[in-house]
Structure formats: C-alpha cells, structure tokens
Amino acid sequence: MKxxxxxxxCFLVFCFGCQIKQNSNPETNCDSTYLDYSNSKDQFxxxxxxxxxxxxxxxxxxxTKRVGNNPKIKVLLLHGGPGGTHELFECFDGYFPxxxxxxxxxxxxxxxxxxxxxxxxxxxxxxxxxxxxxVRKALNMDHSNFYLLGQSWGGILAMxxxxxxxxxxxxxxxxxxxxxxxxxxxxxxxxxxPQLDPEVYKEIKDMEANNDFENPRxxxxxxxxxxxxxxxxxxxxxxxxxxxxxxxxxxPSIYIYMQGxxxxxxxxxxxxxxxxxxxxxxxxxxxxxxxxxxxxxMDPKYMEWMSNQVPNGRFLLCxxxxxxxxxxxxxNYFKGLISFIxxxxxxxFN
Length: 350
What we know:
Layout: H1 2-24, E1 48-55, E2 58-67, E3 74-78, E4 102-107, H2 125-138, E5 146-151, H3 153-165, E6 171-175, H4 181-195, H5 198-209, H6 216-230, H7 241-248, H8 252-258, E7 288-293, H9 300-309, E8 313-318, H10 325-328, H11 330-346
Helix pairs in contact: 2-3, 5-6
C-alpha cells in the first residue's frame, strides 16, 4: 500500500512538473517537438548539413547547422565579413530556442567551416546571392516560413537577395548595415573618426594614406580605440569567446578583396567600393526589420531612413549597442527581433 502511494505521488509530481514547464518554457513543453531530431535526416550530424553549391568553377560544399524544428518559422543567418563565420551569431542560442524559432547557422563559401576554392571570381555579390538561393532550396525554405537575417556584410547580401528573390521570403532582417557604402564612408569620416582622440585619428589616417596596414601599430590603434567603442562595447579581455574565435577564423583574403583593409571605408580597388542600393529599397515589399545601434559603425539615423523606404518596414534601435549589438545590447536586440518575427508569423505586422 505504501509503495502504491509513493508511485501515485511521483506520478502526480511528474504531471504537475510537466504542466509548469508547458506554461513557463516552450522549449521544455512536454508536447513540443522543437528539439526532436528523431525523424530528421540530419539527426546523425546534430543538424549539420554540408550543402553542395553549383558554381561556374565546380561544385563545392557549404556548412550549415539547423537548430530546432518549426515548419512556420525558419531563420537563415548571413554572417558578416566578407569571410567571417556563423560564430558571431552563437548568442542566438540564448534566445531563439525559448521562443521555438528554428534557425540555421551558415558559413558562406570560402569561410572557415565551408569549402575554400580560393577563387576570387566567385567573390561577388551575384555569386553569393545564388549561393543563398541554393541553400534555401536545400533546406526547404519558402515564402511560408523563410526569414533571412543578414548582419554587416550579410546585410548587403540579404538586401541583394531580396532585390532578386523577395517572392521566396516571409520576412527580412537587415542588422547593422547601411544600403550605401558611400554613405557609410561619409559617416565614418565625418562623425566617427573625429570622435577619436585627434592624435590617434591622425596616426591612423597617416598609416592608411601610406598603405601601412600591415604595421602592428595600425591594428593596435584601431582595436583599442575604435573597436571597443563602435564594434563591441566591451573591454577586449571581456569579449565573448565566440567573437574572438570568429575573428581568428576570418578569411583575410576574401575580406581584403571585397572590403579592403580599413574600418573607415572600402579601400583601394576592393569590389564593394561604391555599392549602393538605396534607391531600390522601395521595391522590397517583404516585411522588413532594420536594426541600428547608437554607437554602431553604421549610421543609425540612416538605418531608420531605410526602414521608411521599404513599403513594409520597421526600425529597431539598440540604444546601448554598437556593430555587434546582438552582444552589447542583447536585451533590446532580441526583444525587438523576436517581436518582429512573431508579428509577421501571426499576420499582425504593420
């Protein structure tokens, strides 16, 4: 009799506990299949898929990793750089699963976890747009569930993708990226640069004028005076491990080829020089969120202007954030981002 009472008590505790989890945390909902990979082809790899990408120079594989299951919401993350990695998004693990948002990490071709053909003829926005399209198809994303989030260079790529393939999108998020390289350069030269100590800024600009980018002093000045103010507003020794790891994995060849050496604009003959789609934003009808930050390398007022150029736009300002506002203004960043995704999903976005 006593053992039966104990068994009944344990059963009640289990059921009550399950009910609490259902009410407080969707991720641990007893009926949720969000973290159930048992019927998935990628269960063996823990959600990792090496996706073949067809190019004029052959077929190469790009690395992706799916987190969660949600047939209505699938977010593909486009990292910055060019030549960066998905690692700069790893903090999404702290927020999206609790909302049962499916998301996919993705290293673009020639980035750390993907194949590296090291062929500069493939380092074009046109190539990367088609690469994203092939990834989308491989992952069965479509207009009913496909959200594209691009940060920094990834924002350029996301805008270019939307300008060609917006019919495939359910939602678009442009994080910390302006629609015009010339306007970005103007902001850096007229606003951000002069905020530095005048002697420091002069030394930086002198080295840039002399193409002395390999000088260790250049990296030291930019990192300690600029990065900690406008890239990630934390002391360098406090930067998250995922950020330092991501920087260590950056492919400098593609970065320099497309962006150049400077953080104050696109230098030399780098291929993104002059890129500007500001006058084409009005043709993007997809619900769009523009994310800016007060201390960003990108002008937050311009980001707000962008949100008014797209017919269905919304602006999110991270008041405490910089270029990596997903880290240094996390609460505001994810609150606004999740709200946008949920509003689009529910049909209440306006």
